[in-house]
Amino acid sequence: MNYTTRSGIILEEICGEYALIAVRGAWEHCKAISRINAQAAYLWQLFEKGLSLDQVVAETAAHYNISEEAVRQGLKPFLETMTEAGYLIPEEDNQDR
User: Fold this and answer.
1) Burial bucket for residue 37 (CB in 10 Å: 0-12, 13-18, 19+)
2) DSSP of 32-49
3) For residue range 4-62, what is the model confidence (pLDDT) as tens digits?
4) Using CA atoms, how far apart are residues 40 and 38, in angstroms rounded to an integer?
5) What are the residue ranges spanned by the domains of the chain?
6) pTM (2 d.p.)
7) Which CATH number fits domain 2-91: 1.20.58, 1.10.10, 3.30.1050, 1.25.40?
8) Contact, 11 vs 45, CB < 8 A?
9) How many beta carbons lie within 10 A of that of residue 14, not counting itself?
10) What is the pLDDT of residue 17?
11) Contacts of 81 (CB under 8 A, 6+ apart)
12) What is the pLDDT of residue 69?
């Protein structure tokens, strides 16, 4: 499954802290402001670029110099939290595997 970022969500860095800010009606689907850590901000930026889940895993593994399996395990809580909060939208993966 792949994920897209909800339209109207802006990532801001303020004094070294990161926050997702809902604008343009996005607050109807999620909290107006959510504080996130640097790793979540990094992941958000990858999804914001429109990368597939596999691409996010590969980029993150290379960036942090860890295995793709470790990234996949670490991504689970992020994906669950961001999806439940309404910031990420799951979409069907149409690629043949």
Assistant:
1) exposed
2) SEEEE-HHHHHHHHHHHT
3) 999 999 999 999 999 999 998 898 999 999 999 999 999 999 999 999 999 999 999 99
4) 5
5) 2-91
6) 0.88
7) 1.10.10
8) yes
9) 9
10) 96
11) none
12) 97
